[in-house]
Amino acid sequence: MKKDMIKITFPDGAVKEFEKGISGIEIAQSISHKLAKEVVAVSINGEVWDATRPITNDAKLKLFKFDDAEGQDVFWHSSAHIMAEALEQLYPGIKLGIGPTVDNGFYYDVDLPEGASLTDSDFKRIEDKMLELSRQKNVFVRTEVSKAEALKTFTEKGDEYKLELINDLEDGTITFYKQGQFTDLCRGPHIPNTGIIKAVKIMSLAGAYWRGDEKNKQLTRVYGITFPKQKLLLEYLERLEEAKKRDHRKLGKELDLFHFSPKVGMGLPLWMPKGAQLRERLENFLKKVQKDFGYLPVITPHIGNKDLYVTSGHYAKYGADSFQPIHTPQENEEYLLKPMNCPHHCEIYNARPRSYKDLPIRFAEFGTVYRYEQSGELHGLTRVRGFTQDDAHIFCRPDQLKEEFLKVMDIVLYIFRVLKFEDFSTQISLRDKEDRSKYIGTDENWEKAEAAIVDAVKEKGIEAVVEYGEAAFYGPKLDFMVKDALGRKWQLGTIQVDYNLPERFELEYKGSDNKMHRPIMIHRAPFGSMERFVAVLIEHTAGKFPLWLTPEQVVILPLSEKYNEYAKKVSNLLENYDIRSFVDDRNEKVGKKIRDNELKRIPFLLIVGEKEQEEGKISVRKQGDGDKGVMEIEKFANMINEEIEKTLAFK
Ligand SMILES: [Zn+2]
Ligand SMILES: [Zn+2]
After folding, report:
1. Which of 74, 201, 242, 576 is spaced 20 to 30 Å from 287 by Cα?
2. Tell me: the pLDDT tens digits for 434-458?
3. Which residues are catalytic?
4. What domains appear along the chain, each with residue ranges and CATH number?
């Protein structure tokens, strides 16, 4: 009896015995019926499996629902199969390429039969068919097949795309999955049955060359998304609508912040005056904190000798996919557009001898860098070819590493607090536990650095995910991911330890033992880049920037042109208090002016007429908060400045 049992270890450490061959879903069933209905996949010893696949050995088990990233991936991947099945029924003779998941949903690349076409008006038909198939509660059945068998199946079907894929696979590793009348070549895993898909939406169509090669035939890419509940689909569509409204490319134009000109070049943003001022305020905000934290400003050129990047290793790694070297009339003289600031900062460190007493040294620069991105990859301010990093490099001794990490984290957390990115998560990326050959630097230093990061995060009371094997070859790192107002995740802020560049640039300091030692380098950029950060901020705030940052804080609305003079005077007075205001003296009704300026997201509207002018006062309206009554100008100015001071206070 005992020999037919296996031990299953649950995530909380509990161990339970089950009969050999039991599946994840059956184990879920033994816990509760409700749970079993929600399980979409499992992981066995860290590998994601079908929840229906028999478990034959002792194993660590995790159950995934749709809410889990792994569960969602399996759910959407399985949905791609169902969409393919639906398309096959609606368009007999259709040939299928690949059908992977994407951030939101999935797609399938299909080759429509001769004479057939797909447009938006077909979406409903496909959705209905998919729902019909899901109601059949078809089970996904996994079979291992030989290569010969696999080739035979798809030769009979006449699907040359699948044949090409099979030809690239090794015999003995091939599996088919069948649900209903549909069989696909697939590694899996999949959901237990199609019945758990309750809501379906076909989103869009696109053209896509087979295998991304424009020499191949162009297939039709059909995008879709599915959910286990109708409510989730409706929420998703609402978020999508909201995201469109908040799109930084759209708001950037409306708020007159930045512009792209094909004449200047693709992916090269032009900052308009309002955008430039906003960016300057962000920079000054960070510069002030950095000054308090002992950072020293440096400035380096936009190009650098090619040899600099040969030394740093960037040329070998990225050279071929970068902007190509700039040549001069001089023979053999080659420069690169600066792809990163680090090598320049290393040379500043090297400019003079350094002692252990000088460390840590923190060089900061809003450094503009240029990286070639394919034109298809460019996207507003989030993917550009030229951008400015809020860069800094800290050179320190091993015993200072933890302290420096804590300080950088203080800056990052301060920024998140001030800009109301309240929902964030952190990831610590460490070395692979087994294979250590791919990392440079001594074991001793790595252990110190990894412990420093882990301790620093613990000391700050931050919960972090630890990922082994995710470190760069040159050092461990800590990444911050924020969730914006729509629940979308953005990577902002990274702190990275580097043993590589100090080695390559032969950085040294004289220790207390009078011997030469190598410093450790930390790269950090809390914003990431100004371009990307402003884009995220626009979408997070829907363009309603915080008071201290917004381009125009106050608009003054004279009730009639009789009061234009007084309105100007108010504006001048406010300027003395560093408050950014302007007078809307258009010949319009005040009601219209209020509406127009509220649309421009200006935080304060001041209305002035006869009474205000006589008393030397203003009537204050706050955006989204209505009438605040009549006030003295000085009192209003102090109120604004106090509010800003409170927001920016470093607690
Ligand atoms: Zn599949
Ligand atoms: Zn760097």
Report:
1. 576
2. 888 878 778 888 888 898 899 999 9
3. 342, 371, 389, 391, 393, 477, 523
4. 2-65 (3.10.20.30), 70-240 (3.30.980.10), 258-302+338-541 (3.30.930.10), 554-648 (3.40.50.800)
